[in-house]
C-alpha cells in the first residue's frame, strides 16, 4: 500500500487530552458484558467435567428438563446438525470441541452440557440434575511428559504436515528456522553456555469475566452482545458452529474490562445462542471466576533448551534453542512464535530455533499479549546474562554489540526495515537507573524483547455533521485507548479539535469486516484506515470549496481545518473552514463522509529494553521489585499517556508472571488454584513506580510512523526480573514463577 504525505510535525498527535470514555466509566454509565438485559431473558449455566480426561459414556438431561424453571438444555448434539456449513474442520472444529465436549472431556472444566432457566440460581441448581457417566482415562498436563513415548494420546490424527515422522501424536505442529552454520559458530566461541528453562501457564487475569447475551430465533436471525476483542470473529465463529448464515447474526461489542488476548475467541457465546434458539428466549451467561480459570485460555507452559556461544569481546558466534510449548487439548500453542521471537533482537550469523506445539489435558490456550515471546526471551536473555557475567562484560554493551538494526537478517528470515532496538539500548545505558547504586541483597537485570506486530483486515467510516463535528466508526474494540488515538489522528487530518470527534465501536451490521483487536494492530491498522478515511472526506471538502469558488479542485488544498487556494494563481479567496462547508452540504451535493477498507501491511516490528532492580530476602525467599524502567520504541506516540500505560501494564503483568502467577495442577489433573485468592496477581503494594521512556523511531509503513506498543511490553519482564533476582540471590533461577519456595530451594541447592 502506497503511503504518501508522511507527517513528522503534528498539531494534535502527541498531545495528552482527556480520554473520551473516562466519564462513562467513572460514573458507571459504561455497559460491560454483564450489564445488558432483555425482556423475557433467561439465565444460562454450564456443566463442566470434573475429570482431566474422560470418555463421555452417557448424558441424561431428563431430570433437568423436567425442572419447572428450566426452559432449555443443550449438549453437543445441539451443535452437530450444521446444514448451512456441514463438515466443520480446522480451527472451527477445535473451537466447537472446546465450547462443548463431544466424545471425550479433555480437561478439568471442559463444558459437557448447559441449561437455561428463569434465574441464575435455578440454572445452577438444574445442573446438579444432569447425570453424566464418565469413563476416566489417563491424563497428562506437563509438556515434557506429554511428548514421552508412554504419554496418553489426547487425540489421534491432530498433527499437521509439519511434524516429523516418529513423534508422539500429542506433538501437533513443528517449526524450524534459522540461518548459517551453528556448529561452526560454536567452534569459534570462547565460551558456550547451554541450559534449560521452564515456565508455567499463567492467565491474563482480566477483572471482567466472560459474559454475553444471545438471542437466536428459529428463522436463523440473531443478536449477540458480548465482551470481546473481536466481534466479527465472534460472529463468524458462532454462525459456523450453529449452522446459520453469518450475515444473519449481528454482534455488538460491549465495553471490555480487560482482555489482553484472552477474549479473541469464543467460549460461552455459541452456548447462549444455542440455548436461545431452543428456548426461543434471550439467554444471558456470565462466567464465574473459577470457570474463567478452568475453562478459558491461559498462556501455554514451556520447557526450553538454549545454547549460546560468545567470543571474549562479546560477539555472539552461534545460538540455538528448542522450545516446547503445550497449549491444552487442542493445537495452537505458539511454539513457532516462541522460536521466531527468541533470538530476534540480535544480529546473528549462525542461529537455529525449533518450536513444538504439544497437546495436553489442559484448557485451550489463548494469547496473552505477545503469545509465546516472553518465554523465549526468558531463556535466551538469561543465558546472555550468564555469558556476560562469566566473561566480565557489561550486559548493555554486549546487547548493543549484537543488536539488530536496519538491514539485519532476522533470526526467523526477513531483513528488518527501520527499527529502534539500538536506540532503546542507548537510552537504557544513558538512563540514571542503569548506574544507580544497589543496596546489599539487591540485584539488577536487563533484557531486550521483540514482537512482530500485525496489520489485518480493517474497515473505517467517518461522517461529518452540519455543525462541523465528526463521527468516526471503527470496528476494533477499544482495549487500550484506541478511541482517543483514532480521534487524535482524525483531528490531525481534518484540522478540527479532538473534542469535536466522537469515535464509536460499530457493530457487525454497520461496517465491513474488521479483524480482532490483537497483534498490536489497532493504532497501526485502524489508525491508518482512519487517516485514509479522513483524507477521503477532505477530498470531498475540497471539491465543495472548489465548486463554490468556481476553480478546479486541483487548485484547492487543505490546511489547518480550512480549504485554501493552493497558490496565488488559484485566486484570492479567504480560507473556508470545515464548518462553513458542512453547514451547506445538504444544498451542495449531500452528506460528506470518508471510508477506507484494506488489509494494511507494514505494521513494523517492535523492540523494547527493560531495567529491573530486585531485592531477595534470603531467609524467606520473598522478592521485592524496588525499581523498574521500561524503554520501548513506539514509532510515534499518538497519545503518550496511553502509550506509557501500555508500557507499565506489560511490566506489571510481567512482574506477576515472573514472581507469583502459575497454574497448579494436582496428581488428578485438576486445577488447584481457580480463584484469585489462590492465583495471586500483583496488587499495588507489590509494584514499584514504573518509569517509562518512549523512543520514537518512525515506522515507514504508517503515515504518522506508528508502531503497535501493546504486546512488546510483556516480552522483556520475565528475563529482566529473572536476571535481577538471580544477581541478587547469587544463583541462577531457571523456572518461573520465582516464588519464595523455589528461591529458597535454589539457595539451599547452591549452598550445598
Automatic annotation (TrEMBL):
Gene3D superfamilies membership: Aldehyde oxidase/xanthine dehydrogenase, a/b hammerhead (3.90.1170.50), Aldehyde oxidase/xanthine dehydrogenase, molybdopterin binding domain (3.30.365.10)
Entry keyword Oxidoreductase: yes
Keyword tags: Molybdenum, Oxidoreductase
InterPro entries, per database record: Ald_Oxase/Xan_DH_a/b, Ald_Oxase/Xan_DH_a/b_sf, Ald_Oxase/xanthine_DH-like, AldOxase/xan_DH_MoCoBD1, AldOxase/xan_DH_MoCoBD2, AldOxase/xan_DH_Mopterin-bd_sf
Keyword Transcription regulation on entry: no
Top-level taxon of origin: Bacteria
Coiled-coil region: none
Every Aldehyde oxidase/xanthine dehydrogenase a/b hammerhead domain range: 27-138
Entry GO MF terms: iron ion binding; oxidoreductase activity
Protein name, UniProt field: Oxidoreductase
Organism: Ruegeria profundi
Amino acid at each position: 500500500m502506497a503511503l504518501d504525505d508522511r507527517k513528522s510535525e503534528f498539531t494534535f498527535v502527541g498531545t495528552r487530552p482527556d480520554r473520551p470514555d473516562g466519564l462513562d466509566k467513572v460514573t458507571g454509565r459504561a455497559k460491560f458484558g454483564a450489564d445488558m438485559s432483555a425482556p423475557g431473558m433467561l439465565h444460562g449455566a454450564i456443566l463442566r467435567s470434573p475429570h482431566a480426561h474422560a470418555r463421555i459414556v452417557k448424558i441424561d438431561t431428563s431430570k433437568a428438563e423436567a425442572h419447572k424453571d428450566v426452559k432449555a438444555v443443550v449438549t453437543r448434539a445441539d451443535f452437530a446438525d450444521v446444514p448451512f456449513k456441514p463438515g466443520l474442520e480446522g480451527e472451527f472444529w477445535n473451537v466447537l470441541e472446546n465450547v462443548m465436549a463431544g466424545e471425550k472431556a479433555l480437561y478439568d472444566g471442559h463444558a459437557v452440557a448447559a441449561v437455561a432457566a428463569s434465574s441464575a440460581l435455578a440454572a445452577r441448581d438444574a445442573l446438579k440434575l444432569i447425570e453424566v457417566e464418565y469413563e476416566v482415562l489417563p491424563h497428562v498436563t506437563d509438556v515434557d511428559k506429554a511428548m514421552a513415548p508412554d504419554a496418553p494420546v489426547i487425540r489421534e490424527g491432530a498433527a499437521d504436515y509439519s511434524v516429523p515422522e516418529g513423534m508422539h501424536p500429542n506433538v501437533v505442529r513443528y517449526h524450524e528456522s534459522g540461518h548459517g552454520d551453528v556448529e561452526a559458530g560454536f567452534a569459534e566461541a570462547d565460551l558456550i553456555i547451554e541450559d534449560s528453562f521452564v515456565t508455567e501457564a499463567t492467565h491474563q487475569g482480566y477483572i471482567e469475566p466472560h459474559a454475553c447475551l444471545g438471542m437466536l430465533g428459529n428463522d436463523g436471525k440473531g443478536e449477540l452482545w458480548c465482551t470481546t476483542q473481536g466481534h466479527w470473529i465472534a460472529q463468524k465463529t458462532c454462525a459456523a458452529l450453529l449452522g446459520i448464515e453469518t450475515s444473519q447474526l449481528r454482534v455488538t461489542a460491549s465495553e471490555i474490562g480487560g482482555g489482553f488476548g484472552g477474549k479473541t475467541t469464543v467460549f460461552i457465546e455459541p452456548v447462549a445462542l444455542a440455548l436461545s434458539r431452543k428456548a426461543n428466549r434471550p439467554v444471558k451467561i456470565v462466567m464465574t471466576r473459577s470457570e474463567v480459570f478452568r475453562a478459558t485460555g491461559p498462556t501455554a507452559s514451556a520447557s526450553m533448551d538454549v545454547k549460546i556461544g560468545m567470543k571474549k569481546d562479546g560477539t555472539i558466534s552461534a545460538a540455538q534453542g528448542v522450545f516446547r510449548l503445550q497449549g491444552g487439548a487442542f493445537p495452537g500453542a505458539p511454539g513457532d512464535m516462541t522460536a521466531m521471537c527468541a533470538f530476534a533482537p540480535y544480529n546473528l550469523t549462525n542461529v537455529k530455533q525449533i518450536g513444538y506445539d504439544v497437546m495436553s489435558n489442559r484448557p485451550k490456550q489463548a494469547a496473552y499479549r505477545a503469545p509465546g515471546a516472553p518465554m523465549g526471551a526468558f531463556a535466551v536473555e538469561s543465558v546472555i546474562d550468564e555469558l556476560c557475567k562469566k566473561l566480565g562484560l557489561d550486559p548493555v554493551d554486549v546487547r548493543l554489540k549484537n543488536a539488530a538494526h536496519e538491514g539485519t537478517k532476522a533470526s526467523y528470515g526477513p531483513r528488518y526495515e527501520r527499527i529502534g532496538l539500538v536506540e532503546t539500548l542507548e537510552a537504557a545505558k544513558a538512563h540514571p537507573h542503569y548506574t544507580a547504586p544497589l543496596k546489599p541483597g539487591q540485584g539488577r537485570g536487563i533484557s531486550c524483547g521483540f514482537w512482530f506486530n500485525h496489520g489485518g483486515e480493517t474497515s473505517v467510516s467517518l461522517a461529518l455533521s452540519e455543525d462541523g463535528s465528526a463521527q468516526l466508526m471503527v470496528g476494533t474494540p477499544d482495549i487500550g485507548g484506541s478511541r482517543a488515538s483514532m480521534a487524535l489522528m482524525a483531528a490531525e487530518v481534518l484540522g478540527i479539535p479532538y473534542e469535536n470527534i466522537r469515535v464509536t465501536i460499530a457493530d457487525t451490521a454497520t461496517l465491513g469486516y474488521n479483524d480482532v483487536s490483537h497483534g498490536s494492530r489497532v493504532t497501526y491498522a485502524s489508525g491508518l484506515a482512519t487517516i485514509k478515511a479522513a483524507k477521503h472526506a477532505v477530498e470531498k471538502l475540497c471539491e465543495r470549496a472548489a465548486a463554490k469558488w468556481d476553480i478546479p479542485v486541483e487548485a484547492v488544498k487543505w490546511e489547518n481545518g480550512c480549504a485554501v487556494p493552493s497558490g496565488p494563481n488559484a485566486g484570492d479567496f479567504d480560507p473556508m473552514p470545515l464548518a462553513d462547508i458542512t453547514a451547506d452540504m445538504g444544498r451542495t451535493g449531500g452528506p460528506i463522509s470518508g471510508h477506507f477498507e484494506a488489509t494494511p501491511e507494514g505494521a513494523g516490528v517492535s523492540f523494547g529494553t527493560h531495567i529491573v532492580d530486585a531485592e531477595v530476602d534470603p531467609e524467606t525467599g520473598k522478592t521485592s521489585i524496588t525499581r523498574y524502567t521500561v524503554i520501548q520504541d513506539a514509532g510515534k506516540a499518538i497519545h503518550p499517556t496511553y502509550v506509557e500505560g501500555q508500557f507499565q501494564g506489560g511490566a506489571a503483568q510481567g512482574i506477576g508472571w515472573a514472581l507469583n502467577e502459575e497454574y497448579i495442577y494436582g496428581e488428578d489433573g485438576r486445577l488447584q488454584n481457580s480463584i484469585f485468592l489462590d492465583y495471586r496477581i500483583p496488587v499495588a503494594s507489590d509494584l514499584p513506580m514504573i518509569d517509562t521512556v518512549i523512543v520514537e523511531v518512525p515506522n515507514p509503513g504508517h503515515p504518522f510512523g506508528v508502531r503497535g506498543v501493546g504486546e512488546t511490553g510483556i516480552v522483556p519482564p520475565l528475563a529482566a526480573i529473572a536476571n535481577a533476582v538471580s544477581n541478587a540471590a547469587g544463583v541462577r533461577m531457571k523456572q518461573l514463577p520465582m516464588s519464595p519456595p523455589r528461591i529458597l530451594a535454589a539457595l539451599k541447592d547452591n549452598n550445598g
